[in-house]
Design a protein that fits this description.
The protein is α+β, with helices and mostly antiparallel strands and 147 residues long. Helices cover 35% and strands 31% of the residues. It is elongated.
Length: 147
């Protein structure tokens, strides 16, 4: 608001452009926050649907999941290491309590425009043990129905 008042006299178009941009950013952040807790993870018969607010989304076939586990701090890739290249922690600032490892890189879409190949995903969940069990059970069910 102060920036708008400072620029209004000399550059009214820029002042309004910045104000509108700020309001749109606030609306995006509010919508993202509202959607963070809703429908973030869904395990279906054959797929895992990830939705982290408006920030990230992915649909991963269960057959692509090598394992879902509770990681120790040693198992999380260190920033800048070769392992960190295909790793994304989707729920910053909370530290991950679930590590999802995929057979091959899978696309995660960030902010509906940026596509990133990811092979390892860090998540922070309210019930990490329940999620790990649900993934294991869904994989067993999927393999049984294929046979």
């Amino acid at each position: 608001m102060v920036l708008h008042l400072l620029l209004q006299g000399r550059y009214p178009a820029l002042a309004w452009l910045l104000t509108i941009g700020s309001l749109l950013t606030l609306a995006y952040l509010a919508a993202d926050y509202q959607r963070l807790g809703r429908d973030s993870l869904t395990v279906n018969d054959r797929t895992l649907e990830l939705r982290v607010g408006l920030r990230a989304r992915a649909e991963i076939p269960l057959e692509a999941v090598v394992r879902a586990k509770r990681p120790t701090w040693q198992e999380l890739p260190e920033t800048g290491s070769p392992d960190a290249k295909e790793y994304r922690h989707l729920m910053h600032p909370a530290s991950p309590n679930v590590l999802l490892v995929l057979r091959a890189p899978h696309t995660v879409v960030f902010a509906n425009i940026i596509r990133v190949p990811v092979r390892c995903i860090g998540l922070h969940l309210d019930d990490p043990d329940g999620f790990v069990t649900a993934i294991s059970n869904a994989q067993v069910t999927a393999h049984a129905s294929d046979a």
